Amino acid sequence: MKLQTITLSSEHLILVSFKPKRLNNPFFNLAAEEYLLQQLDCAEQDYVLIYVNKPCVVIGRNQNIYEELDLLYCIENQIEICRRISGGGTVYHDLGNINIAFFSNCQSYKVNNYHYFMNDLFRFLQSKGIEVYLNERNSIYIGDYKIGGNAQFTNRKNILSHCTLLFDANLDQLEKSIQSPFKQIESKASKSVRSNVKNLSELLKNSNRDIFIKELIDYFSNHTKINPIHLENDQKILIQDQFEPKFKTFEWIYARSPKCEIYCQNELFHIEKGKIVRASNESFIHDSFLPVNELKMYFLKS
Fold first, then answer.
1. 156: which residues sit within 8 A by CB, 6+ positions away?
2. Which of 6, 74, 192, 232 is the Cys-Cys partner for 89 at CB 3.0 to 4.6 Å?
3. How many CA atoms does the CB half-sphere of 256 hold within 13 Å?
């Protein structure tokens, strides 16, 4: 597969330019993926985008946010809460997590064919002495430990297939942020499957994240004929103005969650579009919050 590195020479992204000042804005990065999916001409060329986010949790397009996260923990620890356009499970990002997004023209044999998109990445990891494989859920594993996940989205013109790699992420924060405090939730949402995780840095003692990313890009450049593409300033402004705002809204992050029922402290709460619509004790509706702190700031927003 021929690849080309998308280089967004922006303060918002860590890419092949390795700018010293980075904001690592996950909302911009998610918006950039959607923009590139729409705008790239992949008829003759595949592309790859590499970036790093500040601490955030990113849930899949069809997931129930209240079932996937400890929302209060995320807020208290300044972990951004995001939803992406692709399906799949919830992932935690921070500056020790590397995100890789592949773009290719839409052909039926590529849909859910993660081996097609992982082939070059796996060869690079194998060149570092790391044997990896995809499990039955298309997660990236070393032995019994998960080091990354995959998800896809297609607009019928192009396919976005993106993955994460845990390099030296905060695994304690990862575990705490993606554990919902509510154990009794009924919904038809896609549910994440939890796994034992490991950082690549445990296996690469003489490397750090930036060295690893540079080596990965060098590998793509030397073995897959990667050529950089630079977004112009007007394109970056367009992403910020027209694509990024959607990813910050209550409607996108919370209201897309499938309706559910939460049973908590002997009360039953019916949730639709991110808000309480009915409760077994109607007084909670007027109080505008559930009887636990984890949700009180999220429901019945004006």
1. 106
2. 192
3. 19
Q: How far apart are CA 64 and CA 189, in angstroms?
A: 6
- Picking from 266, 272, 256, the residue whose alpha carbon sits closest to that of residue 292 is 266
Both 37 and 75 in a single domain? yes
How far is Cα 191 from Cα 132, in angstroms, rounded to an integer?
Answer: 24
Structural domain of 169: 6-253
| Cα–Cα distance, 216 to 284 (Å, whole number) | 53
Examine residue 152 and state whether it is found in any structural domain, yes or no: yes
Identify the CA nearest to 250 among candidates 271, 275, 270: 275
- Chain CA centroid to CA 132, Å: 20
16-38 pLDDT tens trace:
333 333 469 999 999 999 999 99
Find the range with the poorest average confidence among 117-121, 135-139, 191-195. Answer: 191-195
The two beta strands, 140-142 and 145-148, are antiparallel
Q: What is the 3-state secondary structure (H, E, C) of 284-297?
A: HHHHCCCCCHHHHC
27 neighbors 244 (Cβ within 8 angstroms): yes
DSSP 74-111: HHHTT-EEEE-SS-S--EEE-TTEEEEEEEEE--GGGT
- The dihedral through the CA atoms of 12, 239, 220, 59 has a sign that is positive
Asked whether residue 301 is domain-assigned, the answer is: no
Domain count, the chain: 2
Could you tell me if 134 and 141 are in contact, meaning their C-beta atoms sit under 8 angstroms apart? yes
Vertex 19: Cα angle to 244 and 207 (nearest 5): 110
Same domain assignment for residues 238 and 267: no
- The string of pLDDT tens digits covering residues 24-79 is 999 999 999 999 999 999 888 888 889 999 999 999 999 999 889 988 888 889 99
Kind plus residue range of the DSSP H or E element containing 159: strand 158-166
